[in-house]
């Protein structure tokens, strides 16, 4: 959990939101006293992680669907000619 003064949070709101989307909890303070908490909405924790995992799954499927008719060295040599 990260504590951030309110005056600093105003200047870093975008970065703080990205951290919250990543699952971090941020406490906003005024003169060192906690006054508010930034957390992801229920069901939104790890939304970025789910998108990344979905993209990786699509890349894995693409990799499995592509095959070479020759070995990699000969394919590379053909590209140089």
Question: What would your notes on this structure say?
Answer:
The protein has 81 residues and is an alpha+beta fold. The chain has one domain: YefM-like domain (YefM-like fold, 3-Layer(aba) Sandwich), CATH 3.40.1620.10. The chain is built from four helices and three strands. Strands 1-2-3 form a three-stranded mixed β-sheet. A hairpin with a 2-residue loop joins strand 2 and strand 3. The longest helix has 19 residues. It is elongated. The mean pLDDT is 85.
Annotation keywords:
alpha+beta, single chain, three-stranded mixed beta sheet, elongated, 4 helices, YefM-like fold, 81 residues
Structural Rg:
23 Å
Q: Provide the residue-averaged pLDDT.
A: 85
Name given to the CATH architecture:
3-Layer(aba) Sandwich
Structural class from helices and strands? alpha+beta
Broad CATH class: Alpha Beta
Principal-axes geometry comes out as elongated
What is the N-to-C succession of helices and strands?
Answer: EHHEEHH
- The percentage of residues in β strands lies in 15-25%
Task: Tell me the number of helical segments per DSSP (H or I, 4 or more residues long).
Answer: 4
Q: Span between N and C termini? A: 57 Å
Q: Give the tally of structural domains.
A: 1
CATH topology: YefM-like fold
Query: What is the total tally of β strands?
Result: 3
- Low-confidence segments, ≥5 residues, pLDDT <50? none
